[in-house]
Amino acid sequence: MPEATQRFFDHRPESVKAARDFTTRTLRDWGLDDTGDIRLVVSELATNALAHGSDRHHGFLVRLEAQNDGVCLEVHDSRDPRQPLPEPAAPDPAAETGRGLVIAAALAARWGITPRQPSGKIVWSHFPTAPLAPVRAGQEVRTC
What we know:
- The chain contains three helices and five strands.
- The protein has helices at about 15-30, 35-55, 100-105, and strands at about 5-10, 60-65, 70-75, 110-115, 120-130.
- The chain is globular and about 40 Å long.
- The two termini are about 15 Å apart.
């Protein structure tokens, strides 16, 4: 059976490193070797959650799920539901920001943004790994 874990992080700059460390420890505990892609994406998505997805009174949640075909990473925030959902955009080459979703899209096998009720959004990404357990013929495999 797949494993899942999650942790809430306060709205502080130090939470980005804490989210990356949480991800690293979780992957090691699961016996998975991350090439660095998952840690980089969680850093980018956590940074986006702090900068654009929540106010100073709300933090963000990181959820990791080990699936038969990989790892699903989710970053939940409390974003105002009246704002349009973000999309990856080509940033100005001189800009210091604006690449988080572009990086997530480039490194993840699949990714997306889902509205969360009653407010907020979930930015999820899926990273393939070696199978954690054999999949039986006809068995449904859940994706992020």
